[in-house]
Predict the structure.
Amino acid sequence: MSCKASSGLDFTCEDLLSVGGVSPVLWFGYLSELDTQFSLTQAADISQIDFGSYGGLRRLEGNKFSHSAGYTLVEAAGGNKSYTQSVTVKVVSNSTADDLTLHNMSLGNDIFFVVQDSNRVFKIYGGGQGLKATANVQNTGQTGDSDTTNQLTFEGSELTLPLRFALGGGYQATLDYIEAAEL
């Protein structure tokens, strides 16, 4: 059996205008709170997040250039392939309620993230199987300029690349939709 791409990729001068990094704000939710799971066919951008009665997105805000998201192709011994998707967040915990949020995030195993990159593109990480915390680190540091943020890493195996999320109305319509889904 031969698996083949059905088309190629074009490159234009506009493609050179691309900035690395992600927005300091990202959102997470739980696949178990969705009434309809995300389509993994990738026939088109995802344009709806269908939460049940009590579901919604939770907002995480960090400093500029503090979060990251990505994926790596993995090939198993038998030749099966999947993508390890990962999201790393760096946030400040200032209260017991914040500590509890970080603690509970560390326990989830069906988390998905909606991440906006620096080019105003939204992608869903963990949209098929969900991500789980693989690290939750915080240190006081030794000097006054030490990094005291909480750094959490979430990873999971997925069948697809991160799913693109966009509404027909463009960037602002997509952002408004996401913010309206916040709990």
Helices lie at 96-107, 171-180. DSSP finds two helices and nine strands in the chain.
